[in-house]
Amino acid sequence: MTLDFEGTMKEFSDEAKKVSAAQQMYFPKSEYPQDTMIQFSCLPWFSFTNLGNELSLDRDDSIPKVIWGKFEKHGNHLLLPYSVQVNHRLIDGIHLGKLINQLQQYLDLLVIEGTI
After folding, report:
1. What are the residue numbers of the active site?
2. pLDDT score recorded for residue 34
3. 3-class DSSP string for the chain
4. Domain region containing 19
């Protein structure tokens, strides 16, 4: 679900909390333990070349963290900044490579179709 930024930051935050609470009924925490989570975040307001996530010193932290920013079209190319943080003990580079390749194919398709 998307949530448009309207009003003050406080009003937006209050509305986001309401939307989040309403979505909890679809994803009860008891059904989805912490080890099945993936944290996604989007920063569509700006592009970036580097973005660091909060570093967890828990060696058993298995929650992948994915963040993407504002995409930009440069000629025939669509650039999408993203950051992926995973526990290498649990996820190998081949899995990240597959993710990156599928994402690239999708972005290429958007450009070819003229969607963006």
Report:
1. 88
2. 56
3. CCCCCCCCHHHHHHHHHHHHHHHCCCCCCCCCCHHHCCEEEEECCCCCCCCCCCCCCCCCCCCCEEEEECCEEECCEEECCEEEECCCCCCCHHHHHHHHHHHHHHHHHHHHHCCC
4. 1-32
